[in-house]
Design brief:
The chain contains no helices and 11 strands. The protein has 125 residues and is mainly beta. The strands form 2 sheets. Strands 2, 4, 5, 6, 9, 10 and 11 form a 7-stranded mixed β-sheet that branches. A 4-stranded antiparallel β-sheet has the order 1-3-8-7, with no helix packed on it. Strand 4 and strand 5 form a beta hairpin.
């Protein structure tokens, strides 16, 4: 059973920074395509960023491009999202996702099999 555990959420003022982490445990020893999604109150879940298993292919939502940086450490089995220049519209619950079958980073949440419980990010103006 694969488990994803997010951490690093919290409150920050606009223009500030946060670093989210997602740890992978359980399952077979393999590397997954992973991504971050977010859901704001009253809104649908939306794609934030995703990374290939090797880390050489990363895709970002236009809304976060240039402000957020996605990276991974396959030895530690962790995924990171560095959030800089945070905006109030970044306020949401952030979810980590992973899938063992994808061959490239995907923006489609329905293609990811495993999900974390989410971590709250609040950006105040």
């Amino acid at each position: 059973q694969v488990q994803l555990a997010e951490s690093g959420g919290g409150s920050v003022q606009a223009g500030g920074s946060l670093r989210l982490s997602c740890g992978v445990s359980g399952g077979r020893s393999r590397i997954y395509v992973m991504g971050w999604f977010r859901q704001a109150p009253g809104k649908e879940r939306e794609f934030v960023a995703a990374i290939s298993w090797s880390g050489d292919s990363i895709v970002y939502a236009d809304s976060v491009k240039g402000r957020f940086t996605l990276s991974r450490d396959n030895v530690k089995k962790e995924l990171y999202l560095q959030m800089n220049s945070a905006k109030p519209e970044d306020t949401a619950v952030y979810y980590c996702a992973a899938d063992p079958s994808l061959v490239q980073a995907s923006r489609d949440g329905s293609e990811y099999e495993y999900w974390g419980q989410g971590t709250q990010v609040i950006v105040s103006s």
